[in-house]
Structure formats: structure tokens, C-alpha cells
Amino acid sequence: MWRFLVARACLLVVLVLAASSAMVAVTSLAPGDVTGEAHAAGGSPEQIARERARLGLDRPPLERYLEWIGRTVRLDFGTSFRYNQPVASLVATRAAHSAILAGVALVCAIAIGLPLGVVSGSGRYPRCAGVVGAISLVLLSLPPLLIALLLTFVAARTGWLPTGGMQSAGADAWDAGRRLLDLAHHLVVPALALGLPLAASFERVQQAAVAEGSRARHVLAASARGVGAGRWLWRALWRPTASPVVSFLGLAAGSLLSGALAVELVTAWPGLGRLMFEALATRDTPLAAGCGAAAAVFLAVWTTLGDVAAWWLDPRMRPGAAR
Amino acid sequence: MRSSRLFLIPGILAVALGAGLVLLRRPVSEPAPSATAPQRPVVASLRAEPRSFNRLVAGDRSSAVLALLMHARLVQLNHKTQEIEPALATRWTLAPDGRTYTLELRQGVVFSDGAPFTADDVVFTFQALYDPKVEGPLTSGLTINGQPIAVRKTGDHAVVLTFPEPYGPGLRLLNALPILPAHKLRDALARGELAKAWTTATPPSELAGLGPYVLQSYSAGDRIELARNPRYGARGPDVQPGVERLTFRIIPTQDAERLALEAGELDLLNSEIRPDDLKAVRALEAAGKVKAYDLGPALDADLLWFNLGPDSRKPAAARPWLDVRVRRAVAHAVDRQAFVNTVYLGAGTVVDGPITPANKAWHAEGLPRYGYDTAKARALLAEAGLKDADGDGLFDGAKGKPFTIELLTQRGHALRERAAAVIAADLQKAGVTVDVVALDVPALVERITKGTYDAVFFAVTAGDTDPSANLDYWLSSGSFHVWHPKQARPATPWEAEIDRLMHELTALTDPRERQARFVRVQQILATEVPAIYFAAPSLTTATTTRIDGLEPAAMYPYVLWRADTMRLAAAP
User: Fold this and answer.
1) Residues 6 or more apart from B507 whose CB is under 8 A from it?
2) What is the ipTM, given to two decimal places?
3) Which of A12, B223, B346, B388 could anchor a disulfide with A300, C-beta 3.0 to 4.6 Å?
């Protein structure tokens, strides 16, 4: 286990460097730079030239990249060109916001997807399974962007939920309990937009696992001995069918990351996806690299947790375990 | 059961961790200045978060709006009348030399932290503005011919401003400059670190201003909470904001902004309503949910300009638009009324030049017009030497290919992309093929600054209604003389004449003499058509019915320029 964790930690370092280097490359090699905004706002050429020199943009990209690498290995992600603030603090705040959204979306996805997967995979409720399968198919084919737009529209028309943002105006003056409730209220639309397609994926995976598991000998034997369907379905089948689902958790990280960008834009959620989009659009190289690094950490940690959970659940999946 | 708990563990951990972070992370906040019963905040929108709370280094719209609310100016522009009015300077006189202003400052005014406002703050602000380590977006607009304005304190509440030369717009340029607290920022300036001061991470207690509102908290990317400044007095003791708390929600897309207005989550749009959303907003108005304000035509119209400067990619022979007849042909080829109907869905006004009818003092009638006439456009193109040898209706370019203009525009800006498509379609009818290339702003700006393009459809935003405030656009040496910027000497006789007239009118103070010269400038521009203007959008903005005391006008920020008179409407 420890060897595995050390290997994953090394992989994490490589992944972080690769992702942030890719961001540096994209923002440095794409036409234009961060001073384009100042130029469009009426800055004089002399002023823009001085700004470019201050930011080091007048030097060759390779030289800038090597300097950036030198700082990054010392965990210094530099200062955002646009905000004149340390990248680490900007990214940390937004990453926390994205973690809340991703966490709640995942809980929603699991809470909705797994029970429905059990129902549709058991073969005991064929009509219900048909409906669940159809809904899953629709949700799987709808991107989070579209679901976010749809839910925001419904929220605006009904007034039941906030259309966007993370907290209400004036929330800073409230006590912690009221702020938590307000946060939960604001989470409904983005978390569902992000979580529903994932719930459909969970449902499909769980359905297949339960369908296969219910044909297993020990289940058939239990059933033949008179063990009630509810008991074997909801208790005996959980553990053996959980492995594929837990393995899928790792893959879900990618969906959450890519979906978060669109959902955060539509629902004005102040997360990492929006910050990354803005950093790329304005060629804020240090900020884009910081966002890339944070996304890589998220991906690596999430998949590692998924693997560890899968091993814990099913010893056969551990490295070196006898099959 | 053990397994089911397992599924929830990562999610619950993430939620608990995140929620804990949000709850424990103390947003940089201050106690509310009023102990009275809390009033529901007025909520306004911002499209992007501010780059900084230091207006001297941040030129973005969000930072500018916040500076307007948190700081006061010596004089301010009345967006309705487009004339200046007193603020921190109550009176001023101009010496006979035409360049020395003596300003009397308002007495008894204090900053939001209680420190008194004196002439030292004015002197400090100019010092900071011109400091080479600070130099930011406001500096070039507050220099005359590259020279700074000299500021001298003549009393605790009196200053003398000496312009390097007589300057027609006079004190108008001071509208952009927020007066900063010397007692808060003097040390940072002395250390050469003023440019790093007052970032968005700075605790509100370190900020102080003379504006009607003070910063209470900033939640990165989400919202900015302001509270009424109980010590506000920049426009006299009688002018006091009637809104206790003002919250800005950062809403990155116009779709979300419109839906938030519809849901009653927004009280005030800080931008104009898109033509596509007008119908929905009118419906909300009919339902009594919002008040829509028709502000008339916009002050600025988007424009198409050709690259008349050097282009390393193409010889002059491959750039027929260097011939004025080609430019006039393009101006004739576009049906401006159809442009208004298609691009602005009818909510626009046909214009012939950069000075739209919204500019009350400087708009000129009777300029040369280019009516929609495809046949005339074709005739002008033929006159300029373009040929259609194969008779396919399209003029020929090099190597037997059709004559093609690459038209750059801004990607993601729906109206500009739509406008470029309309222009391309109309020019096709006149025999000119147009390749529309949409680029994001940094890439577009790079092409423009390198001069490697044929034509651009984009915007040039004027800093003020007075043309002398926009010399960068008019003078051939200007960096915003978009069709051929930064010329060492005027490349054409007509640019030389515009230069002369603009220099003259900038040095003159008599409005009629200035006006006469500027009409001539507009005539020259309309004759030579280096830039072609088609239409200005009609501006509409909206607020909910719960706020009152506003004077919306067509100059940005349309509503919040009068934030100090904003109040809650009396309950019906």
C-alpha cells in the first residue's frame, strides 16, 4: 500500500507539472497577451510596453517557462498578472468553492444513481427499470451545460431556487447556520446540473453490476433457501456490486471537472472552472498554470481515493492479490 | 450497510470540508455602520470581478464602477447634461492665461474612516497618478500632450492646477480621477509599492474613500458588499445615499443576468439590455416587476476600419482599400437600416460617423452620407480598377481568385459577430468576398497592433463626449488612430488637416469656435471614410420597482453614476 501511495505521489508531481506546463504553453503560445485588455481599454503603447516588460512578456517564451519551472518546484506559483495577487491564494479560494460543488454533486449522483441502479438491475421491477433506463439515457445524452440552463430557467420562472451565485446578498452578516442553509439553497441548481448526468452513469454501472451479481451462485442459493429478495438485494449484493461502482468514482472526477466549467459559468458559481476560463481568455499565464495544477491535484487525489476504496472493498483488486 | 456508508464517505468529506472552509473563512468584513433594522440590500450586477480596488492601476469596468462608488472626484460629469458639476471642488476660476485653474475645495468633508479631506489629498493623488511606478490606465488621459498637470496647494482647502498649455475641455478630464486618502497610501507611494496596494484581498478596514459607499466585504468571484458611507459629504451635506446596503453580484453571462432580473434577485442591471432580451424585459415591465429605461442611442457605435498603415504581409497593390473609392464603395454597399433590423433587432439608429446623436454638444448634421446603393458600390469598385473578368459577379483578386477582404471581429460578442455577417452578406452582393474571422480579444488586439490585417469590425470607446479627450483617436500620432496608428508625421493631407484642426480646437476655449472646427473634422472623416460607421444601438437598462432617485443616462455607468441619490421607493 505504501509503495503504491509513494508511486501515486510521484505521479501527482508529474501530473501537476505537466498540467500547469500545458497551461503555460497554451497561454504563452496563443496569439496576444494579458496587455490586450489594457490596450482595448485605452492604454498608451508606452505604458503597455512598460507593463509587458514588468511582467516579463518581452522575453522569449522558453526563458519565461524555465523561470516559471524554477519557481514552481519551490511551490511558488507566482503572482496573477490581472489581479496582482499570489496565485496560490486566488486558486485556493476558488478550489474550495469547486470542491463544495463537486462534493455535493457527487453525493446527489450517488444518492440518486445507486438505488435506481439496484432497482433496475434486480429484474424485479421491469416497468420501473424501463422508465429508469429511459431517464438515464436522456440524462446521459444531455451535457451539464444544457441541464444547467434548463434548471436556471426553471428557477427563474418559479422563484423556488436562486438562479445563480453562491450566497445571498447580505449573507456575511448572518450566523453560520443561516449561511449554511443559504449555501445549500444556492447549491441545488449547480449540483443537480453537474450531478444528474453522473447519477445516470452510476445508475447504468450499478444496474449492470446488480444484474450480474443477482445471477451469482451464492445469491441464487440464498434465494432458494428462502432468503427474502429485499434482504439479498439490499444487503448481500451491496458489497460485491460496489467494486465496479467505486472504480467508476475515479472516472467521475474527469466528468466533474469538465462539467464544472460550463455549470459554473451558467450558474455564476465562483469556482475554479470559471477562474481557469478567465485566466485562459485573458492570457494570465501564472493564474492559468495555478488552475491547471489545482485541477491535476484534484484528479490525482480523487482517483487515488477511488483506487484505495476499491481495494478496501475488494481484496482481489489489491496489487499482488491472488485472483 | 458498511458498504453503503463507504459510497458516501468521499462526498460527505468534501461537503463538510468545503462548507467548513466557507463558514470558517472569515470574509473580510466590517460591522455594519448602522445599527438600525437591516434593510434588504439593493442588488446590482457586474459582469466580471474587479481587478483591484486601486483605481490608479485597474482600468477594467468593474474596478471603475466600484471606484465611482467608493471615491469622490474634484468635479464630476453629469451624465444627463454631459456637463461638469461641482463635487469636492465647489468653485473654480480660470486665469487669463487659459491654463491655470484655482479650485476651492469643500470644507468639512471627511474620509470614510473619519480623517479630514484637505488639499494634501489632492496633491497626493496627482503625485501618485504620475508616479512612474504606478502609471496606470488613468495617466495618459490626464496628461496634455504628454505633459502632466502641475498641482500646488495654496491653502488647506485650495489648490491651483496648471495645465501645460490651454486646454479646451478644461476640468472635464478630472471626472476620471478619484481623490485618494494620503494618510492611507502615502507610505506605500514612498516605498514604491502603491501599484500593489489595495488589491481585492486587502481587508476593507485598510481602505478609505470619499464616495457614497464603503466596502464591507468581498467574496471572490461571487459578490461585493457595500454599505452606505455615513460620513459622505462630497456633494454637500444634503446629498446622501438612501440605500443602506448595496451588493454587487458577479454574473459572468448576460443570460444569467437576465434570468436573475426576472427572478427578482437583481434590482439593477449595470449594463444595457441585449436587443434579444428586450421583449422579455418589456413583458416584465408590463407585469410591474421592473422599470425599463430607454436611454436613447449609445454614445459609441461599433465601426469597420481598414488597415491603411503598412502591412508586412501584403504589397499596396493587393490592398485596394487604400483607394478611397473602395472604402466609399463599402460604405455604400451596406444597407444600414437592414443592419439595424438584423443586428439590433430594430433597436438602433443609423449613424454616419463616430459622434452619434447621443453626444449632445458635438453631433453634427449634414455630413456626407453613404446611402445603400449596390450599383454605385460596384461602379466605384470598377472605377478603382477592380475587374470581374469571368463575369461571376465577384470582383477578381490575385491569381484568378475572387477579391477577398479578411474581416476580423471579436469572438463571443454576439452583436459584433452578427454585424460582421451582415456586412459580409451585403458586400457579397456588391461583388466583394469577405472572410469573417472571429478572434478573442488578446488575439484580435495583437493582430491590430502588429498591423497584420485587412479590416476590423470592433469598438473604440471614447473616454468623454468632448473630442479633445479622445485625441488618441483623432490625431495621426495617436495609438487609437486605428486605421494607421502612431504615425511619425501625417501620411495623408487630410490627416494633416485633422491634426491641425484638433490641435486648434483643443487649445481653444470658445465653444462655438471649437464646434466649427470639429464639424470640419467630421466632414473630412466622412469624406475619406477610413472608418465606416453603420448604426448605434438604442440603449435600454432596467431596475426593479423598489428603487428610486435614479437619473439613468446613455453614458456608462448608465444608472450608478448617480448612486448617491439612489433610495428605496416608498411602498405603494
Assistant:
1) B98, B165, B166, B167, B168
2) 0.82
3) A12
